[in-house]
């Protein structure tokens, strides 16, 4: 299953002509493309899907959604790392 996950922009830089950000997803930090949201700034929250920031989100909604994902077990390691799964890394079969 693919999820769009809210994250907080920690740092922004341009790489090879592409605006990129370091984004914190409740403790998991990943690189994200900002081409769809060029005015996103450090400290802003966005919904991210497969490495692209798609929509700006207010802080309260982002934190509420991350808490819900955590409570549902969607961010726990026992279900595997969704970021590795998206990248095509092998995962253990679930029983």
TrEMBL record:
Top-level lineage group: Bacteria
SUPFAM superfamilies registered for this protein in UniProt: HupF/HypC-like
InterPro entries: Hydgase_assmbl_chp_CS, Hydrogenase_HupF/HypC
Coiled-coil regions listed in the entry: none
Family, per entry: Belongs to the HupF/HypC family.
Protein name: HypC/HybG/HupF family hydrogenase formation chaperone
Origin organism lineage: Bacteria, Bacillati, Actinomycetota, Actinomycetes, Kitasatosporales
């Amino acid at each position: 299953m693919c999820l769009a996950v809210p994250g907080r922009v920690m740092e922004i830089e341009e790489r090879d002509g592409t605006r990129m950000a370091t984004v914190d997803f409740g403790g998991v930090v990943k690189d994200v493309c900002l081409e769809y949201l060029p005015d996103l700034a450090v400290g802003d929250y966005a919904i991210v899907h497969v490495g692209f920031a798609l929509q700006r989100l207010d802080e309260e909604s982002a934190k509420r959604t991350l808490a819900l994902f955590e409570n549902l077990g969607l961010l726990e390691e026992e279900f595997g790392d969704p970021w590795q799964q998206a990248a095509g890394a092998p995962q253990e079969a679930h029983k």
